[in-house]
Amino acid sequence: MQSDNPYAPPVSVVEDAQPFAELPESPKKPALAYAGFWRRFGAYWVDVLVFLPVAGLAFYFGEKTRLFYLYWFLPGLAIGAWFHVYLVVKHGGTPGKILLKTRIAMLDGSKVTERAAASRYSVLFILSALSTVAMIVGTLKMTDELYFSLGRVARGAMLMELAPSYKLISILIQLWVFSEFITMLFNKKRRAVHDFIAGTVVVRREADV
Fold first, then answer.
1. Which residues are CB-neighbours of 114 under 8 A, at least 6 positions away?
2. Average pLDDT, the chain
3. Is residue 209 scored above 50 in pLDDT?
4. Res 207: pLDDT
């Protein structure tokens, strides 16, 4: 059939024209299931229990040599970095988080980066290092005779007196830990202070969502 409009395209062209195919919608990422306060609180105490054997070894060797804190300084820092940085990057969390079926992730749910893992641990790393340095200074101010003549409690009290700023550093460590848990109570994603520093969240593992 001929169109009355001389400028119209042939009818066959119009009939054969196909409408544009609709582009498929990109699949939406599932919402992240953030780990709750109690799950994170439990993971913290599991990690404390995991570290008990290390604390036992430290106590044992501390009874054998006055310079234990000096010898322990670098190995202690290395163990802390392995536990809080390497395991987080490699497995998504510390043993406590893994056992309680959570993982540390970036804000979009992707795998945590090395930089983020290091940032999460940075404050506690610095405070722990300062604490050990203070104890090293304290032990260097004592003689072997004085060190071994005191009982464990009396020795610890004297070391804290001789260690510069040790009490202040201990208070700062306690405040840091408490602030972590308090912060988690006041945001929906249950992020702690170190999560805000590093740009991370703690989410439930996929198998448990």
1. 85, 89
2. 88
3. no
4. 47
